[in-house]
Amino acid sequence: MGNTDGKKMSIIVTKGTLDWAYPPFILATTAASLGVEVTLFFTFYGLQLLKKDMSHLKISTLGNPGMEMPMMGMHMAMPNMVSMLPGVDGMASSMMKSLIKKKGVASLEELREATVELECRMIACQMTVDLFELKHEQLIDGLEYAGAATWVEVATESDINLFI
Fold first, then answer.
1. φ, ψ for residue 16 (rounded to 5)?
2. By C-alpha distance, which of 22, 26, 25, 28 is closest to 9?
């Protein structure tokens, strides 16, 4: 583990799709393994990443023009128009999950578990939990429930602040 001389990082997690789930957990576990104190603040759709079961996460091809999938020895782009077709998001999600497994990339569950094991502070936005009528029982154990003022306090003390 590296020595970062008390460095701190905060991450606001707002997205709840399969492709947007990886960056906060990868960055958090990498920073924590290097000795950075990490706080993740999950709000709005980012709360999907705190549900006990994450198998429902999908990729949205809509508004994702940079999405390319390796297929048949080349990279196939997904035009925005394709996302109007029924089943395309499910197909893209299935392809991504298969690619993740094939390439030996850690699963989201493994990354989230590592985030917990590395003692990253994980805060669920209480206002958004209430807004979406989520029950604490639906979410993983060990979360802190707090509001934006808590994140602001963390952010003002952090060396790195990310919005994902």
1. -125, 35
2. 28
Torsion of CA 65, 70, 74, 77, to 10 degrees: -20
Q: pTM of the entire structure?
A: 0.81
Instruction: Please identify which residue in the block is written with the tokens 């196939």.
Output: 76
* Residue 13 to residue 75: CA distance in whole angstroms: 29
Residue 146: exposure state from Cβ atoms within 10 A (0-12, 13-18, ≥19): middle
Q: What values do phi and psi take at 96, rounded to 5?
A: -65, -45
The per-residue pLDDT string of the chain (164 residues; one tens digit each, 9 = 90 and over) reads 455 689 999 999 999 988 899 999 999 999 999 999 999 999 999 999 999 998 888 876 655 555 565 666 666 665 555 555 566 666 665 666 566 677 677 889 999 999 999 999 999 999 999 999 999 999 999 999 999 999 999 999 999 999 99
DSSP symbol at 86: T
Rounded to the nearest angstrom, the gap between the alpha carbon of residue 125 and the centroid of all alpha carbons in its chain is 15
Q: Where are the alpha helices (DSSP H) in the chain?
A: 18-33, 88-102, 108-117, 126-131, 148-156
